[in-house]
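Notebook, p. 212. Picked up where the previous page left off. The plan for this session was modest: take the two constructs that came back from the sequencing core last week, fold each one, and keep the raw output in the notebook itself so nobody has to go hunting through shared drives later. Recording the first one now, exactly as returned: residue sequence, then the structure token string.
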Amino acid sequence: MNAMTARFSPGALPLLLPVLLFGGLIFLSGCQKKDVAPGAPPARAVTVAKAETRDVPVYLDEIGKCSPVEAVTIQPQVTAAILEVHFKDGAEVKKGDLLFTLDPRPFEAALHKAQAALEQSRAKAVYDQAQLKRNRELSRNNAVALQALDVAESNALMSKAAVTADEAAVETAQINLDYCTIRSPISGRTSKRMVDGGNVVEANKTQLLLIQRQVPIYVDFSVPENELPKVRHYKAAGTLKVEASFPDDSDIKREGEFDFLDSGVQPNAGVVRMRAAIENEDRLFWPGQFVNVRLLLDTLKNAVLVPGEAVQVGKRGPFVFVVKDDSTVDLRPVKPGQKQGRQVVIVEGVQPGETVVVTGQITLSPGATVAIVQP
């Protein structure tokens, strides 16, 4: 009992404490080395997505320009002063609507003059025809010289020709008078008038107004000549569609019908001109406006798609990181296809339902362990 008391006497405790603490640290350190393998890197945080399948379009993307189905520049066909303008700038007009009235008085006078000349010619023709008839009756009895008969026949023919000429003059005068009333030849939207009322306009020279038909509307675009065989193939199959959208807002779009394929390749440009007709009742598109054009060729069935950010490009080409069941990643070479919004078609390299890394690839290498986090 005395020996035990002497061994653990209060004076010996300060000497034993450092030994006990050092032994405890060695014990804890040994336990930690058993839990973590030496040199194992931590798991990398990544976001992922599942490869999905759906039907997607096969397409060509081009830049197009809207143009009116019909466009007419209004010009006067007689020289006269404008009496009245019957429309508002930018108005919608229908075919036959009155646009301008020109001063008709000179043309009314010309018509009256031509009508009077016609009446004179007809009166002379009646007289000359009667003279010819009398001379023919007298010639049967040898009561008139043959020369007089020839003169009578000539006068009758000239009178008849004069009547025809004066009838044409009356018709011309009536046409010129009708030209004083200018009506819309098509239905469409007017531009700003180019000449105000009161001005004298010159026949077939002065431009008065532009009218453009916007319903439906054309979209003109071009495709590279190397795509022409593909376009012709799908055109023959009857699957061609055209989709137009705004460059700054691709969500606003409208589908139209393929309308025109040019007869040849444009010299020195290497492109073929094409056109689509798109319904435009609400005037969504405007003549002269540039739009994005997507020429829909066909539909690809059960295509595999992944987010576009998942596809990386290395020295050996495009690849993705595929997450395996043990939370490690595999570097998988892929063959990407067309983009579909924020996704891209994977032609080869990824199976439906596989998990691909979307963000965090910069710290990854084949076989690395990942920790999936929410985007």
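Okay, moving on. Second construct, recorded in the same format:
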Amino acid sequence: MSLLYGAEALNRKASADKNKPDEIIRSLEIRKGSIIVDIGAGGGYYSIRFAEETGLGGEVYAVDVNGDFLQHIDFQAKHNGLNNIKTVLVEEKAKGLPERGCDLIFFRNIYHHIHQPEAYFKEIKRFLKPNGRIAVIDYKKINGFSFINLIGHFVNEIDMIAVLENVGFTPIKSFDFLPKQSFNIFQLK
């Protein structure tokens, strides 16, 4: 699969009406000048949307393990005249982010890939401002046959909330408009 095809396929999926991207953006209540981290940025659909929402005074960190996807995001940002996106190539541990500087850290369909979520989210806490939030969207196990169930790319929402509470987050909002995914927002305790 070519870089462009892979990144654009991810962006088409993220932007599809059935995945309710506009409702997701509204639910995040992004303010101008915010600093947002998009973990697992993929093709960059949400990174671009966040950069538009935060405006010139804001910053967006597009974080991914795939350097080719990050090059695509850099290209898209330049193409759209957005100078407030920084791409960050990482392995599993987050780095290259401002300590205690982030308003929102966004995870979409990434949690199920994190091997040690307690350790990971303990580490993530250091990048948030005192009133910072994290948003976690991930697939739910659904009844019947599905590809997501088959490959195990889903999260038990109750277990995920328990992990985050255990490491110092408190759930502040939960949304149910995504039929195949859970969507929760947490804040530091």
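Notes on construct two before I forget. Residues 37 and 167 are 19 Å apart (CA to CA).
Flagging for discussion at group meeting.
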